């Protein structure tokens, strides 16, 4: 008995230590970036800044906030994300609701049409050519229209709709409600968890999306934040800019400027994330156990 | 005829709802599938998809002669396979650990932190990685230097680069991957644990003999599906983490298609590569699904 409980305690110790290491590994890169963005040049250059900021200094942030192209990208990304999420949710609901009706003729055909696209696609070049021929290059719609319905999310939504008791819909119909009325007045109010989850997924996908922006957007006025950030972080553009502007402004290291931009671009996600967390866990479970 | 009218009168709203989504799928999902025909054509942007002359399999003959194509194909398989070896077990281990945590608060906090990297874009992850792992001022090499280790070229030596690539993958996906295993764990019968306790099993024994077998079928299904995606590879991760110095390993099919197609304008060649990838991918995923159904009768289709 004694040996067993000692074994259990050892188990607990190992467990908590391992998990703690995992948590640190998850957080440390963020903390490091935040610290770099808020530290002075000297400790950064001498490599002293690890996960705590040293000699607090916010000049990198004032530089980022003073950059009009950065702010423009932020606003454009925010605007794009909101428009995108609303459009996607409306379209996903419009697709999911009728397809849950087993008696609807042609339902299976439409379902096959949609599910097939999960496993086979034209590929990025034909997509690019389509966007070009529709004259959508350098338009925000090139970042919205090609992604309107994610079939996987649509199936999650269908699973949710199917779990709503049939009797609710039937009684609404007896009262003379149309399908559209039933959807708006009965189904949607009951579907807030799945709507919140999928909105979060769509929004995060758009906010973080980078590939299509790289392909379709060449006009700097329409750079979403990720593309802007990519140009800044990956190219050496930044250092040239700094040298050009010379010594009149307080010198800010490219490292801390990049770090501040990264924090700046991550912040919106960090703000909404805790609010929606409880929804997406149940949402993704719903999707995964469809079997 | 009357019946059809009655039916339509009853259901027209549902069909009306479907119009826009179906139009979307036809235009934006099936439209590009029609565009795939340019893999069999000498595509010219001015003549468009339909007017360009057919050339049969000439473009495919051309890509099967390209060394760069085989390199991208090899790297795709290699990186996916290594990812499977390193990234696949990580969420299982994490889920097993989370499952043993008895403090509800600690578990909640851990999950919140572990899911977080999944919501960070690859551009930002790339930025963090380049900041942290550079040889000149990166924190990792600075710390290594303090314990007397020479700078390690995590980003510019192709062999070290693989570890950087794999590490970022684990970091980004391990926590998120636990969700599905945690869901599977809730289905395990609690009485099994009580019975094992009566038999004197310690916590490790219980984990090994009850918890792990309890999620075995989930593991198998996900493993088979991963195998089905061997030829598919996302664009953003290799593109952002990769660079010129390591392109011998970082050039994969998706980045290759981008470079050949959009940067050098050889649309037909790039489309043919994409088409090859899509077809092989479809075969892989259908085979994987078949195997998953056979082994666990829990397929995904």
Automatic annotation (TrEMBL), chain A:
Q: Does the keyword Ribonucleoprotein apply?
A: no
A biological process (GO) of this protein is: transmembrane transport
> Cellular component per GO?
plasma membrane
Membrane-topology annotation of the record: Multi-pass membrane protein
Q: Respond yes or no to whether keyword Aminoacyl-tRNA synthetase is given for this record.
A: no
Q: What is its main location?
A: membrane
Name of the protein in its database record? Carbohydrate ABC transporter permease
Q: What is the lineage of its organism?
A: Bacteria, Bacillati, Bacillota, Bacilli, Bacillales
From TrEMBL, chain B:
Please give one Pfam family short name.
BPD_transp_1
Record's keyword terms, sorted: Membrane, Transmembrane, Transmembrane helix, Transport
GO cellular component terms, semicolon-separated: plasma membrane
Q: Which residues form the ABC transmembrane type-1 domain?
A: 73-288
**Membrane-spanning intervals of the chain:** 12-31, 77-98, 119-140, 160-186, 207-225, 267-292
Entry's SUPFAM superfamilies?
MetI-like
Subcellular locations according to the entry: Cell membrane; Membrane
Biological processes per GO annotation: transmembrane transport
Top-rank taxon of the source lineage equals Bacteria
Q: How does this protein lie in the membrane?
A: Multi-pass membrane protein
Q: Which family does it belong to?
A: Belongs to the binding-protein-dependent transport system permease family.
Name this protein carries in UniProt: ABC transporter permease subunit
């Amino acid at each position: 008995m004694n040996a067993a409980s000692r074994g259990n305690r050892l188990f607990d110790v190992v467990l908590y230590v391992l998990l703690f290491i995992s948590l640190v590994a998850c957080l440390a890169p963020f903390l490091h970036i935040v610290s770099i963005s808020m530290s002075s040049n000297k400790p950064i250059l001498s490599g002293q800044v690890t996960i705590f900021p040293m000699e607090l200094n916010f000049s990198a942030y004032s530089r980022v906030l003073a950059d009009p192209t950065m702010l423009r990208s932020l606003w454009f990304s925010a605007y794009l994300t909101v428009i995108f999420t609303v459009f996607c949710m409306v379209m996903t609901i419009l697709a999911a609701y009728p397809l849950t009706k087993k008696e609807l003729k042609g339902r299976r055909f439409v379902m096959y049409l949609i599910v097939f696209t999960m496993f086979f696609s034209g590929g990025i070049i034909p997509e690019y050519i389509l966007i070009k021929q529709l004259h959508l290059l350098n338009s925000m719609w090139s970042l919205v229209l090609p992604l309107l319905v994610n079939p996987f999310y649509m199936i999650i939504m269908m699973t949710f709709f199917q779990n709503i008791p049939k009797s609710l819909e039937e009684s609404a119909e007896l009262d003379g409600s149309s399908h559209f009325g039933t959807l708006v007045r009965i189904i949607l109010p009951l579907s807030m968890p799945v709507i919140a989850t999928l909105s979060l997924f769509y929004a995060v996908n758009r906010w973080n999306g980078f590939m299509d922006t790289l392909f379709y957007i060449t006009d700097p006025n329409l750079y979403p934040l990720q593309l802007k950030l990519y140009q800044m972080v990956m190219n050496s553009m930044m250092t040239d800019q700094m040298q050009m502007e010379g010594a009149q402004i307080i010198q800010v290291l490219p490292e801390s400027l990049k770090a501040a931009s990264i924090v700046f671009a991550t912040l919106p996600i960090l703000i909404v994330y805790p609010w929606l967390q409880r929804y997406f866990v149940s949402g993704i479970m719903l999707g995964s156990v469809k079997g | 005829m009357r019946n059809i009218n009655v039916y339509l009168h009853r259901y027209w709203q549902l069909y009306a709802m479907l119009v826009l989504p179906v139009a979307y799928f036809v235009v934006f999902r099936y439209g590009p599938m029609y565009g795939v025909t340019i893999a069999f054509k000498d595509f010219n942007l001015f003549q468009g998809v339909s007017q360009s002359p057919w050339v049969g399999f000439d473009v495919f003959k051309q890509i099967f002669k390209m060394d760069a194509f085989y390199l991208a194909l090899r790297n795709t398989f290699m990186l996916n396979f290594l990812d499977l070896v390193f990234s696949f077990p990580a969420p299982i281990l994490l889920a097993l650990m989370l499952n043993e945590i008895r403090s509800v608060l600690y578990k909640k906090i851990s999950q919140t932190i572990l899911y977080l990297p999944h919501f960070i874009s690859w551009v930002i992850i790339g930025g963090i990685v380049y900041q942290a792992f550079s040889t000149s001022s990166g924190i990792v090499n600075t710390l290594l230097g303090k314990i007397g280790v020479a700078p390690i070229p995590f980003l510019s030596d192709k062999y070290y680069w693989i570890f950087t690539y794999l590490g970022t993958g684990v970091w980004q996906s391990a926590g998120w991957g636990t969700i599905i295993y945690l869901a599977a764990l809730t289905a395990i019968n609690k009485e099994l644990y009580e019975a094992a306790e009566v038999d004197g099993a310690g916590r490790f024994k219980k984990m090994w003999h009850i918890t792990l077998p309890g999620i075995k079928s989930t593991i198998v299904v996900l493993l088979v599906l991963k195998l089905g995606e061997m030829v598919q590879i996302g664009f953003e991760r290799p593109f952002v983490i990769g660079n010129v110095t390591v392109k011998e390993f970082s050039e994969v099919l998706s980045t290759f298609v981008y470079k050949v197609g959009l940067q050098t304008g050889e649309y037909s060649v790039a489309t043919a590569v994409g088409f090859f990838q899509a077809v092989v991918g479809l075969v892989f995923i259908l085979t994987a699904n078949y195997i998953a159904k056979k082994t666990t009768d829990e397929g995904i289709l």
